[in-house]
Model the fold of this input.
Amino acid sequence: QELRPKSLDIKQEELGDMVEKEMASTSEAIEDAVRRIEEMMSQARNESSGVKLEVNERSPPNTKTCFSLFQAIRLLVMTSTNLQKEIVESGRGAATTQEFYAKNSRWTEGLISASKAVGWGATQLVESADRVVLHTGKYEELIVCSHEIAASTAQLVAASKVKAEKSSRNLGRLQECSRNVNEMAANVVASTKSGQEQIEEKDTMDFSGMSLIKLKKEEMETQVKVLELEKRLEGERVRLGELRKQHYALAGAYDAVEDGEAKPAPAPRRAVLKKPPLAQKP
Done:
């Protein structure tokens, strides 16, 4: 007991209540996200009509794809809750629910962590979409949040799968829900990138009126910016790698959790990225 990692500062007999509380909190966060997306869609319809409404619905953030994503997440959370109850009922035997959670504390903590991640990801996606609509956010935030949601739902499925029977219908439904969430998240990313491309196309580059000297100056300034951005990108990739190391250290990432024992997952290897060669003048 003394050697067991203190990942949660709560007593084992409180784990069962903690699981139910976190699953309920996640469901509440999803419901709130769906409600806020519906409000954004309703407001867009009230303020626009005809061609303008069609353009707004196709431009990022596409509220329809976000709404579909949250509907898929809501179904996944409901199915996960049903599977969790099935696991407890089939595995506890004569023990109480609290005793089952205490005996499988490592699995329980993983379930709590995954549930928190799903709720947090949904909240972040709605807030990012809201900021983009108000022109105070970045489209990249939507893409990152969509990837985060796909990862967190996969974590929830993995945590549930450890203790579930392979023949469980709820497990099959949960895996199907996970695939649906991934598909909806990919749709959000695709619609956001498409909208970005449409916006960038409006800002076309026209250098036809520049003199030779002006063109030379612009070329040199652009090369300087490219070098600066490459250096900044390299630094941000290093920072991202260090952040991920610290995240895995704090969260205690495990790739196998069985019978209360855990196997540490290997730290992710950062790919070695080479700088693209600069275009040479003829």
About this structure: The two ends are 70 Å apart (CA to CA). Confidence is low (pLDDT under 50) at residues 253-268. The first helix runs from residue 15 to 47.
